[in-house]
Specification:
By secondary structure, the protein is α/β, with parallel strands linked by helices. The protein is built from six helices and ten strands; from the N terminus they run H-H-E-H-E-H-E-E-H-E-E-E-E-H-E-E. Strand 7 and strand 8 form a beta hairpin. The longest helix is centred in the middle third of the chain and has 14 residues.
Amino acid sequence: MGVPSRDAAAIPLWDGAYDATQLGGQANLWGDPPVPHAAKAARMFAENGAAVILDLPCGDGRNLPPLAAGAPVLLAGDTSPNAMAIAEKVVDRAGVRDRVVFVRTDAFDTGLLPDSVDGIFSWDLLGHLTDPGAALLEFHRVLRPGGAIVANMWTMNDCQVSDPNIREVAPKEYIDHFDFYCRFYDRDDLDKLLESVGMITESVETASWWEPPHAGYREYEHEHESLIFTIRKAGS
């Protein structure tokens, strides 16, 4: 499956965002605290008896320590070697390196076999994609029957919408100052997207949380809001 042109163009931009020269002396881009939902997802995966789960994109690894509790094997996937180099240090410090396998992979074409993972955690990815449905279809392909996808979509209440360095290009669509595409969703938007790829949610919740400054990206404390949803693949 081909990667849409804007999404393909973003791959080197993301790798550059994780380069040490862009981090302003910080150890990572996103800060150390994991997103609150990572531990909740890990508990759900573990309760479902997951053997292998995938964090895609793993970014610079802030969600890997809590996710490692979800299964004996955690695949940490990303397109950015710079990000994964930082993430490896994160899991070393957390004492979970022996459970984490780093894989350079893309959401549109993971290279994984069908029905090969028991759970997928995908945070802050789908809203950056011009064709999120294609990525969801790839996630569903590699997910084992009975397994679950946990992902998020930013709402229009997310802090990014009011960021002074972002510009609107269409209703609910923006380009930020690093030239990354950002799409924001309400519940109807999410339902229509999932309907277009033949999926329905097992659960949806709206959640907000605060994050620390991100070097060169959003250099102030800020509040995110997302629709957090779970999709379960039929079968057992």
